[in-house]
Amino acid sequence: MHAITIEQPGGPEALVWAEVPDPVAGEGEVLVDVAASAVNRADILQRQGFYDPPPGSSRYPGLECSGRIAALGPGVSGWAVGDEVCALLAGGGYAERVAVPVGQLLPVPAGVDLVTAAALPEVVCTVWSNVFMVAGLRPGETLLVHGGSSGIGTMAIQLAKAVGATVAVTAGGPEKLARCKELGADVLIDYREQDFVAELRAATGGAGADVILDIMGAKYLARNLDALAVNGRLAVIGLQGGVKAELNLGALLAKRAAITATSLRARPLDEKAAIVAAVREHVWPLVASGRVNPVVHGAFPMREAPEAHRTMESSTHVGKLLLTT
After folding, report:
1. Could you give the residue range(s) of every CATH 3.90.180.10 domain in the chain?
2. Do 57 and 132 contact (CB within 8 A), yes or no?
3. Which portions of the chain are predicted below pLDDT 50?
4. CA 264/CA 17 separation, integer angstroms
5. Nearest by Cα to 104 from 33, 30, 41, 201
6. Residue 202 DSSP one-character state
7. Strand, helix or coil for residue 92
8. Which of 12, 69, 128, 290 minimizes the number of CB atoms within 10 Å of its CB?
9. Which residues does the UniProt record annotate as the domain Enoyl reductase (ER) (predicted)?
10. 2-120+265-324 classified as CATH 3.90.180.10
11. pLDDT for the residue numbered 259
12. CB under 8 Å to 147, separation ≥6 — which residues?
């Protein structure tokens, strides 16, 4: 088969479409013929040499895919060769075939085509596990999403609205904010021109956000704490703004607030399987009904992964970027 390889860390040109050995489905795994994968920020970090795959996982980038089951490994039941699926991966999505732990498989939702389904697993599992399973967003609460026009952001907006929350977003520029509004965002904040803490307080009568989904990390830590409501929960899922910051524990105590930080890629298989099962139970019906939809900016042939990475790094897109085999 062919896959995108990274011989040496570097820029987008480090991504090379090359012939590689076929994967084999091990115990509890299925082999998937990949129809499409999607580009995530983690793929860029891996390309740059800052985010190695977990031990034992594929060394090729790609944290999600869609396709058809080509073979079943030992101990697998409930699936058949030819089934159309999408999957959460620890790596290997940028390839023509990938071996997937059976607990990380999902059926392609009704009403979603096979290629577009590749835009779902990583963002849905990330949002559901952090915003709902960990932070416990409830109907009537306010969610602040940083990077509202990203793949994560566009999914977070829709899922939060589906459960009856108010959604505030930050994004760069009126076009991205307009798209967030179309998806259901109630409070639109241009981080280039506005102070998100002041804007959020004004929009909530001074209360702030009950839950904040943050991709920035250190750069936003103090302001996120300011923006939290009493009993608020801050979920950090990215470090685009750095890894070290000073935290005012007094302010955290005064608000009786909580800060969590999670990643998905390196979690044990049983934890990933539990998240995937929750997504299938709670989110897949929303997708099938059309209340929640994948947002896809565009698709590139997989061999053109370098161009897809350049597009992501330019931050001109809204939603997901796909790679098709």
Report:
1. 2-120+265-324
2. no
3. none
4. 26
5. 30
6. H
7. coil
8. 290
9. 10-323
10. yes
11. 97
12. 153, 170, 171, 215
pLDDT digits (tens, 9 = 90+) for 136-159: 999 999 999 999 999 999 999 999
Residues of the chain with CATH 3.40.50.720: 124-261
- Rounded to whole angstroms, the Cα distance separating 142 from 54 reads 35
Strand 15-19 with 2-6, pairing: antiparallel
Q: Which of 99, 52, 43, 46 is nearest to 71 (CA)?
A: 99
Q: Which CATH class is domain 124-261?
A: alpha beta
The structure tokens listed for 202 are 């004004």
- With b for 16 or more beta-carbon neighbours within 10 A and e for fewer, the 286-313 pattern comes to bbeeeebbbbbbebbebbbbbebbebbe
Predicted confidence at residue 76, as pLDDT, reads: 97
Place of tokens 């062919």: 2
Q: What is the pTM of this model?
A: 0.96
Among residues 191, 146, 139, the alpha carbon closest in space to that of 166 is found at 139
232 Cα distance to chain centroid: 22
Q: Is 16 exposed, middle or buried (CB count within 10 Å of its CB: 0-12, 13-18, 19+)?
A: middle
Contact 94, 304 (CB under 8 A): no
pLDDT at 308: 98
